[in-house]
Amino acid sequence: MLKRLDTSGQETWPRLGSGLGGGSRVREGESWLSREDIGRMRQLADSAVADLQPAWSRSGARLLVLEGIARPSVPACGPSPCGLLKQPLDMSEVFAFHLDRILGLNRTLPSVSRKSEFIQDGRPRPVILWDSSLSPTSNETHSSVKLTWGTYQQLLKQKCWQNGRVPKPEWGCTEIHHHEWSKMALFDFLLQIYNRLDTNCCGFRPRKEDACVQSGQKPKCDNQDSVALAHIVQRKQDPRHLVFIDNKGFFDRSEDNLNFKLLEGIKEFPESAVSVLKSQHLRQKLLQSLFLDKVYWESQGGRQGIEKLIDVVEQRAKILLTYINAHGAKVLPMNE
After folding, report:
1. How far is the C-alpha of 190 from the C-alpha of 313, rounded, in Å?
2. CB neighbour class for 140 (10 Å; exposed up to 12, middle 13-18, buried from 19)
3. Which residues pair with 148 in a beta bridge?
4. Could you tell me what percent of the chain has a pLDDT over 90?
5. Dist. CA 100–CA 215, nearest whole Å
6. Is the pLDDT of residue 21 over 80?
7. Count of Cβ atoms closer than 10 Å to residue 29 Cβ
8. Higher per-residue pLDDT: 272 or 70
9. 83 against 100, higher pLDDT
10. Beta-ladder partners of 108
């Protein structure tokens, strides 16, 4: 049985395995993590590595082929577990996974931190579950659906598939359900993820380290309608729903430089997530959840470091709730 972090800040939970804490069952308190989530996290954290393969990625990510494969020389990332090993700078992917589950969105892939024996510097890196059921993506935008900002804004007005309504062909709808965009916008705002909806960094003042500055895209803000969205991905067997990939968040973006462009055109927000943001329990849930990942917890400086990250997200949650009220946005159940 897992114990809580006690009020004095003592870390009192037993940790099993090298990477993940927790007992054989997850308490009711971590009910936002499914049994399958926990199983996948344990595999990613603790399974022996059978092989390391290059993966198509601008960031230099590599594919960890985990034990249980008959021929490790051939990546068989389907029934056997594989993980995408990313860079140390991408550690916010782990926080994003836990936040996603706590908010009840369930759109990210299981992610853990791991120190890999294949990496000489010994720094912990995020490992994200490799999911072979994702639809093929274009190399240019890493999306399974091609959308520009202009067509995306039109889709929001049409409310595609809402209330079971079949869209007319002239509406230009994709198979993606209208509510998915609300979930993505809320999630991306809290973590200030810009690489899906604002690839050119037009909604905030970027720094020289931001990808849009590195690739020289920043000046292209005058003709937004033609800018392609990126990382818009579905599963082959479930095209109605999005899968949030590449969830690199930014905790150091100041309050006077938040990207409100991410919320543009969004008139409704998911009730489950908004209720968590209003509940005063977000901090405790994040502490409980992140403590399961021992490597991540320690890499962020223990409880003190994690609390600082939560401070940032809590403050953005307050700003988002104020925004929802000020704009008269609706808060709706989104469990179609």
Report:
1. 6
2. exposed
3. 228
4. 62
5. 29
6. no
7. 12
8. 272
9. 100
10. 244
301 pLDDT more than 70: yes
Beta-carbon count within 10 A of 318 CB? 12
All residues at 6 or more sequence positions from 284 whose CB lies less than 8 Å from its CB, including other chains:
none
Angle between helices 302-326 and 178-191 in degrees, nearest 10: 130
CA distances for 36 relative to 31, 63, 126, 232, 303, angstroms: 12, 21, 19, 24, 26
Name residue 36's amino acid.
E
Distance of alpha carbon 283 from the chain centroid: 18
Question: pLDDT band at 64, cuts 50/70/90?
Answer: confident
**Residue range 50-66: mean pLDDT, rounded:** 70
Cα separation, 317 vs 189, whole angstroms: 9
- Does 7 have pLDDT greater than 50? no
Nearest to 22, CA basis, from 7, 47, 5: 5
pLDDT in the model for residue 217: 63
pTM: 0.90
% of the chain residues with pLDDT over 70: 83
